[in-house]
Design brief:
nine-stranded mixed sheet; five-stranded mixed sheet; Rossmann fold
Length: 416
Amino acid sequence: MKGRGFRLSCASWEIPLVEQLLEEEGYALERPPFDDRARVAVSGPSSLGSSIAAFSGLLYIQDLTSMLPPLVLAPQEGEVVLDLCAAPGGKSGILSRLVGASGAVVANEPGGKRLGVLRNNLHLLECFNTVTTSYSGERFPESGPFYRILLDAPCSGWGTAEKNPRVTTMWPKERTGSLVELQRSLLRRGFELLSPGGRLVYSTCTTHDRENEEQIEWAARELGAEVEPLSPVEGFGNEADASGCLRVHGAEHGGQSFFLARLRKPGDSGEEGVHKAKEGDVSGNAPEEAGKWFADLGLDARNLPPGRLERTESGIYFAPSRVAEVLPGGSSWRGRYIGSQHRKGVRLTSRLRTLLPPPETTGGLDLGDAADIRHLIAGQSYSVASEGRFLGLYWRGLPLALLAVKKGRCLFAEKV
């Protein structure tokens, strides 16, 4: 099943519509057996990234094997999870959906371009239950403890050699010593942040023993980690060693190879699922401040996690309440960008499809032709009767984006 792997990042009820939209744009899809949200575009009229669904954040383009680490970690709904090396954000996006509105994800990446990519991707995917931090993973500040941590460690990348043959010459064995030491520092810090009884998934996209099996042997010996055996993943070539670590080969799918190990910290947390939302903690609505603020703008906050709005010089951000349970006061983190305040009112990002009410309740622009959507994306405006400042854009009832309304015409803008 060769083609372009991707994962659906929409609500369950939207999946058939997203598939229909892709098919009407000319993409032929297949479904791999290992996860109900994984898909492969086996053919199409152009790159999958140019599709309306990708532009709208309804899917995230990702190698199939790259989806496995968060699925192996398998956090439960309502848990708060740490993704210690999170860029570019695809795995954090999966974690965000797994923990749901009652949970939260702390996505960490040291500063620089990779942090910007991480924030942009989580923004596009509308991960309101996720915040970003920018610490060196091996020096992540005292916080948590977390019941589940994902450590997709920096590595030599030998597992990507099918797509990037030069990688083995860029990282020959004799030059990987610094990577091995960094990986061990990250493993040590991850275990320190992990609660007793908690799980940490260590993954790499390399085939180098020193960065894989030998690191797990070191973690068991020096950190006291217990290795939990992993089962083969359906639809892939799998190699399991005696300890239960797993190598998954993605070349036959046009992707990369991955190493996976799930480690447990000895002890008992006292309750299964530290930082899991207690019954009654989460209502169907966001707290009053955020909910009323969105409602006054004609948006629907019922799909938001509990949280508050934070106004800074750089913009207005949504901060999920659950994060306060794991990040101490004084920690530096950023919530999800909403928009900005200016003298004429609020400018909202167009990436608020999650908050759009049904089109029939607001008179939103509900188009049935994908070509019309493309015209809007390209900058064309449409005449509308709406007197409001914002208008939802839909494709046959599927929410896509928030449009700006100016002088009787609506148009797409990243910030409106």
